[in-house]
C-alpha cells in the first residue's frame, strides 16, 4: 500500500470522487471557452478585457452573460475567450459556444477575429473554485490543483494555484518522509491543508463574496460605471482580483488586502 497518494487529475478528480470526497455544490463554479485566432494585433503589448459582452453595438443592444478577453500571444496569434461564474455549482442551460460566436461578430474589427482566422477548435472547461473539494488531505490522499477546487473565484486563474499546491504538498511529503513514526508522518502531512488555508483561505472567502455580487448584472454595471474612472480604487481592485498583492510587507494597498483576508473566515 502506498504511504501517500496524490490526486492531481484535474476538475474530474476521479480518485477523490471514488473515495467519497465530493465537491461542495455551494462553492462557485466557473465555465470558460476559448480559441486561438490569427490576428494583425498579435504583437500588441496589452491584453484587452471586456467586462461587458454585447450581442450587437455596445450600449445599444442586449448584454450577454460573462466577460471576455483577447490576449496577444505573439507569432501571429491571439488567445480569445469568455468566462462566466456562478456563486453555486448549479447546472446552467447557457450555450457558451453560441454566446462566443455572437460576441465574435461584435468585437472591434481591428482584431480580425473572423471564422476564417480561427485556428483549431473552440475549447471549453469547468473551473472548480474556492476550495470546492475538501479535505485536501486525509487518509493518505492529497488533492492538488483543480482536483482540490483551487481556481481563483476572482479571476478564473488556476495554473499558479496548482503549482503552489504542488510546492506545499512536496514540502509536507518531504517532512513526512523524514519522520520515524506513523503519528509523526501524519502530523507532517496534516500541515498541507493548513498551509493552503493560510495562503488562500481568507482570500477565497472574499472571492466568494465577490462572485455573489457580480453575478447580478445591475451590480456589475454599477461597479464598472462608477469604479473604473477612479484610479486609486482601481489600483486596489487590480491587485485584489489579479492576486498580485504581497502576503507580507508591501505597500498600503497590500496591507489593506492582508487585513481583509484576516478579517474573514478561511474558505
TrEMBL record:
The domain of life for this entry's organism is Bacteria
Mark the transmembrane ranges. Answer: none
> What PANTHER family would the database entry show?
CONDITIONED MEDIUM FACTOR RECEPTOR 1 (PTHR42685:SF22), GERANYLGERANYL DIPHOSPHATE REDUCTASE (PTHR42685)
Protein's recorded name? FAD-dependent oxidoreductase
Taxonomic lineage is: Bacteria, Bacillati, Actinomycetota, Actinomycetes, Actinomycetales
